[in-house]
Amino acid sequence: xxxxxxxxxxxxEWNSAPVHAATVQVHEGVAIAESPAELREMPSSGEAxxxxxxxxxxxxxxxxxxxxxxxxxxKDAGMVTPDGTRSQIFEEFRLIKRxxxxxxxxxGPAPVRRGNLIMVTSCMPGEGKSFCSLNLAxxxxxxxxxxxxxxxxxxxxxxxxxxxxxxxGHGLMDILLEDQLPLSQAMIRTxxxxxxxxxxxxxxxxxxxxxxxxxxxxxxxxxxxxYSDRIIIFDSPPLLATTESRVLATQMGQVVVVVxxxxxxxxxxxxxxxxxxxxxxxxxxxxxxxxxxxxGYYGYGYGYGYGYGYGYGYGEKEAASxx
Length: 323
Prior knowledge:
Layout lengths: L2 H14 L28 H17 L3 E3 L3 H6 L11 H17 L12 E6 L6 H13 L5 E6 L7 H5 L7 H6 L10 E3 L4 E4 L8 H5 L2 H13 L3 E6 L8 H6 L4 E7 L5 H9 L7 E6 L28 H6 L2
Parallel strand pairs: 1-4, 2-6, 2-7, 3-5, 3-6, 7-8
Antiparallel strand pairs: 4-5
Helix pairs in contact: 1-11, 4-5
């Protein structure tokens, strides 16, 4: 049975079962990396150069454009916020992020190249992928040992600036189009200390080609390697609506496909997964489920349940062994 057939079979189980938030057994261990800036001894010139580079990076970050995110507005909309109280959605995304972080840190069952580059997508529009991207980024930003860069890669129909109430300004497309535009002039600092943003930027008719370009590969290398503690979340276009997401997926370490409970069909899921068959680490996130004993949908009109799909964070070989 192929991984697509396994995923479609899992969707059938989700849609036929009583609708409630799925539960997942997850280990909480996370590796803690010591910051080079905290080293008390620098016995070699190589270490000294690395510490100097770190200081220079920190200085650059202080010059980034700043945007204030209205956390009260997000909280009222049912989203995860660092100052929010514990809730069902708060706990759900705690579970969802853990295996992603393990893969990003190389603690999964197999090494994942660029494991800290995580693309969140869906098969069709309206299944909640942007909402899940934002909540996942917020949840990871609450980690003690990680920072997050949330990238609006839905270049055809960006929604994160509207959801966050921020200006667009320079973004991903501008960096790819302008050789002299540094990443520091497009990244945005926020009032959430460990969360930074990169908007989609200007609209461009050749967005697919730009995302497949050498400039994009260079940018992804810089994003994935410059900060060892940073997780980069890409809010991607839907797989069946545009070609940009399929190109982007080939360059990611992990792909999360949001599946809407009771709406996403077997056929659309099968077609969507077919376009990312080359991606070894693909996971399904069950979205918009009713909570058992709850009153309607949660918060923003959504309830969140999480399903392992066909083995969270595992490729075809590993998934097959976990049937």
